[in-house]
Amino acid sequence: MKDDNKPFQRARTKEQIESRKNEIIDACAKLYSKGGIDAVNFKAISQMTSFTRQSIYNYYKTREEVLLDLLKREQSVWKDDMYQAISDYPVLDKEDYALLMTSIFADHGIMLELTSMLFNIIERNCRLEKLTEFRENSFDVYHILLMSVAKYFPAYPKESHQAFASTIFAFAIGLYPMNHMSEKHLEAERMADAFYVYPEHLGRATAFETQFYNGVLLLLSGM
């Protein structure tokens, strides 16, 4: 059992600081995966790590700042997957490109969920310097999307590449939560007899993939 009265030993190197922050982020990821944002709090994190609840404040002031760093890490993994994918395929037509984008985005649900909460939940309890650091690191999300569409469809004008890159991520973060509702929301939908608003030909399990694939093709057709 962790001794909550044990004096906190401050990290003295950048590597030590990053290691401790990663331990906190790892715990945050597990808590979020099991219970969503409501499951994430400093008490729960301290129970899963070597930190006391009070010592976590040496690295993060709020749970939202931990979630922001989790989002930053998820973006980095997504970017690595994107770079690898576009390196593996020198040429793709529209259909294969749409399939590739669908596969990559569908594999990064936590990133999409957290991004959908960024502007109305997470940012409210984050310090400006933390948000600034996040924005500096997240620019590559747009850059790699721009790079991918420019690589596979070089005949289209630069303005079309930019429009696609700025639209597709917004489309993904809006679409993903709509197709991954909580049991509570699904029950409300049933009680409201609101299933008619959902496309009957789509199964819940693959709805995001189907709609995202069709959306990518639709955006490409307008370029």
Description of the molecule:
The structure is a single chain. It contains ten helices and no strands. α4 (63-88) packs antiparallel against α6 (109-122) and α8 packs antiparallel against α10. The chain has helices at 14-35, 42-48, 53-56, 63-88, 94-106, 109-122, 128-152, 158-178, 183-191, 207-221. The protein has 223 residues and is mainly α. The longest helix has 26 residues, at 63-88. It folds into two domains: 1-60, Arc Repressor Mutant, subunit A; 70-221, Orthogonal Bundle (Tetracycline Repressor, domain 2). Helix content is 70%, strand content 0%.
Write a concise synopsis of the structure shown.
With about 220 residues, the protein is mainly α. It is built from ten helices and no strands. It folds into two domains: about 1-60, Arc Repressor Mutant, subunit A (Orthogonal Bundle), CATH 1.10.10; about 70-220, Tetracycline Repressor, domain 2, CATH 1.10.357.
List the helices and strands and how they pair.
Layout: H1 14-35, H2 42-48, H3 53-56, H4 63-88, H5 94-106, H6 109-122, H7 128-152, H8 158-178, H9 183-191, H10 207-221
Secondary structure: helix percent: 55-70%
Q: How far is it from the N-terminal to the C-terminal residue, by CA?
A: 60 Å
Class based on secondary structure composition and strand pairing: mainly alpha
Low-confidence regions: none
On the 0-100 scale, what is the average pLDDT?
88
CATH architecture designation of the largest domain = Orthogonal Bundle
- How many separate helices? 10
Please outline the major beta sheet.
Answer: none
* Strand runs, count: 0
What string gives the helices and strands in order? HHHHHHHHHH
> Any idea of the CATH class of the largest domain?
Mainly Alpha
